[in-house]
Amino acid sequence: MSQTPPIDLNKTLGAVYIGNIAAASLFGLTSLQAFIFFSGNTRDRRPFKRLIAFLWFLDLLHIVLMSHGVYSYLIIDFSNYAALERPVWSLLVQVITTCFSDLIVRGIFARRIWVLSGHNNRLLFAITLGSIFVCAMGLMFAIRGFIDGSFARIVLESWILYTALGSSVVVDGIVTVSLCVLLVGVRTGFKSTDSLVNTLMLYSINTGLITSLCATACFVTFAIWPHQFVFIGFYFVLSKLHVNSLLAVLNTRETLRRRNAGMTSIPQSPSSIEPLTMNFLVSSNAGHSEPESPSVAKPQPSKHPWQSRC
Length: 310
What we know:
By secondary structure, the protein is mainly alpha-helical.
C-alpha cells in the first residue's frame, strides 16, 4: 500500500491563511476609501457612483468566498490531506469575481486615457482588447478548475494561468506607460502646474507597479511551486490592489483641487489643471459650476484633449 506523500503545510494551508489575512486587511482599507469617496461627493455622476458601489460589492463578495475556502480547508476538512488536492468551489468563484472586478477597474482607466489622449481609438482598442483577453483567460482557468476537479490536472494546463498573469502585467504596463506619456505632454513649464502633473504621474506609476509586481509574484511562485498554494496567496491580494489603487486616485482629487485653487492662471497657456484633474480621474458633474475667484485670471479657451468633458 503506497503512502501519501508528505505535504508542506507552510506552503499550502499557511499560504492561503496568510493571503486571506492580507486580503481582509486590504478590504478594510477598500471600505474606508469607499466611505471617503461617497462622503459629501457631489461632483461625480450617479452612474459612476453606482459603478464604484458595485466594485465595493464585488470586493466584499471576493473576501467572503476566500474566507469560505480557507474555512473549508482548515475547519471542515481538518487533517484531511486528500482535500488539499481538490479546489474548493468558492475559491474558483472568487477567481471569476476577480476577473470582472479587474476588468471594470481597467475599463475606467482606459476611458480616462481615451479622454486624455484626445479620443485615441487605437489606444483605447488596445487596452480594452487586452483587458477582455485577461478576463477571458481568468474565466477559462476557473472553468477548467470546475471541470478538472483537482489541482494536479489544473497544473497540466498551466499555460492558461501563465497567459492570464503575463497578459495582466502587459496590460497594466500599457496603462501606466500611456498615462505617464500623456501626462508628460501636459507639462507647461510652470512649477506649480508641473507639480500637479508629477503627482498624477506618481499615482499612475504606483498603480501599475504594485499590481504588476503582485501578478509577477503569482506567476513566479506558480512556476516554482506548481503543486503548492503559494501563488493562491498572492492571487488573493491582486484584485484588492486594483480596487484600492483606483479608489486612492479618486480620493486624492480634492487635495489636488485645493492645491490648484491657490494657483495663478497664466493667459494663453494650458495653466488650468482643473479639467485634467477632474476628467482624467473620474467623470464629473457637467452641470456643476464653481464661482471664480476675482484674483485668478480667467484662462483662455483651450481645445486640449484633457479638457474635454465626458
